[in-house]
Structure formats: structure tokens, C-alpha cells
Amino acid sequence: MKARVFVTLKPSVFDPQGRTVAEALHTLGYDAVEGVRQGKYFELDVRAGTPGEARALAAEVADKLLANPVIESYRIEVGEV
Fold it and tell me: What is the pTM of this model?
């Protein structure tokens, strides 16, 4: 089963990389892009009996290793593919 973990900076944390990308997009003429936040994406292949078990395992992994809870938050998607 696949568990996808999307890690992003919390809204209150300054994101210099996102700001740089937004400025570059504006320079290229994409003025409709009002902001950019950068993040990380992890795809886990997990052995789990149910989607709930896969989600719980992914959350445990994210809490312990993938995300820094002080400055980052995460969301998890679980599916077969």
C-alpha cells in the first residue's frame, strides 16, 4: 500500500525558497501567482492490512523522522497506487 506524506513549512514560518520562486515567476510574467510555499514529498510503500493502519504508520514515521514539528506540518494520503 502507498502512503504519501507531504511536508510543508507552517504558515507562520518564513519561506525564503518559496519567496525566491515566487519572485522568479513574477519576473517571467506570472503575476497571477500570489505566493509559493516549498515543501517535501515522500512516498512510502508500507505493509498494512487497512488504509487506517497505513496512515497510522506513515504518521508515526513523519512524527519521528520526516517532519520537524516545530516548523513543519504534514498531511498524508493513502492508496493502492
Answer: 0.87
Nine-digit cell string for 75: 498531511
Instruction: Judge whether 18 and 33 are in contact, CB under 8 Å.
Output: no
Residues 28 and 35: their CA atoms lie apart, in Å, by: 14
CATH numeric code, 2-79: 3.30.1280.10
pLDDT in tens, 36-70: 999 999 999 999 999 999 999 999 999 999 999 99
Closest to 35 measured CA to CA, from 13, 55, 20, 56: 20
Give the number of C-alpha atoms closer than 13 A to the C-alpha of residue 70, restricted to the C-beta side: 0
